[in-house]
Amino acid sequence: MALGLALMLVPPAAAAEITLLHSFSGKPDGRNPYGSPSLSGSTLYGMTGGGGAADCGIVYRLNTDGSAYRVLHAFTGPPSDGRGPAYTSPTVSNSTLYGVTWYGGAVNWGTIFKVSTDGSRYEVLYSFQERLLTKGGVLPQGTLVVSGSTVYGTAACGGRENKGTVFRIGTDGSGFKVLHAFSGGRKDGDTPHGGLTLAGSTLYGMTQKGGSNDYGTIYKLSTGGAAFALLHTFTGQQGGDFPEGGLVLDAGTFYGMTSDWKAHGHGKIFRIGTDGGGFNVLHAFGGASDGRAPTGTLILYNSALYGMTSSGGMGNQGTLFRINTDGGGFEVLHSFAGGAETKGFTDAGLAQLKDLPCLEELTLYGPGFTDAAVPQLMELRGLKKVRLVDTGLKPATFDELRRKAGQVQWLVE
Which domains does the chain possess? Predict the structure, then answer.
């Protein structure tokens, strides 16, 4: 099974030039990279969810030509260090990287950390300790925003209603404060995802659930925590649902993506004004040659957006695509070929479970599930009960699964 690749896309005039910069090899190197690397000058900084001496993930750097690859920090796990950064990229500020880990820390609910860009100094700034899922939030994810001496971020769960939080903390680890605790329902979001975007003194972000249709939201709030408002609630179907990645801002317009997980679609690329007006779907993925299930955050370059899908394309292993900011000129730049097919419950399937909100019980339906996966699942998610059902055949849709086996909480294809 492939352990992950670092790729560089050179924006082309006609065809994409794909350069393999680094192939992760597992311990003591990293494995399962999450999020796009962050660029500073001619250096890329990123993280992997596993690998390193303790197999708890790493922070790495390498040059844009693939040279000078180096592990800056290998996470050692709880109780004194983080474990398993997921769906996040480090934020570069004044020769320091800031980031979060999904797990690890004092009670294994995640950490906020900083490390110098040369790896010489590493510090855990905050260890999430609200085991009862109250107040501070748990399971931090998404890319942090650093402004002056303050760091802003999100936690996927916790808060008063266990729907996630927006928080801030000083770059020295002092002054942790919850700016907003999501409550779900029609007037609030649920399960923040993808991190935050700062414009002036206003923070913007997305949640994967909540809003009038429970299909996810786009929200804003001031850096002081006041003036929280929903800019948009996703409608499902043609309007998209379950937003993926973060928002990209350009000249008063945000660009983003949805995975369309709840409405059983293939994903969309959208734009919306910073005032919540002008929502428009730029592209709806068809699920075949153009890709499906977009992942990560879009990259803006010369009035064009670049991104990836996790499946679809000619080899059904995902695509790299480009689209103009006006919605024209959509083009698949590369279809990944992948390696040998894997069957059953793999690390890739386990990684998908990190998108789930805080659950105590979980039922999985899919091909090739065995009881051997239960201990790994319970450790990964902190679950009290796991039930696996081997359907034998891969169902075509969630609706088909529901008819065959009752209510489905999650499906790993």
Answer: 5-335 (2.120.10.30), 359-411 (no CATH)
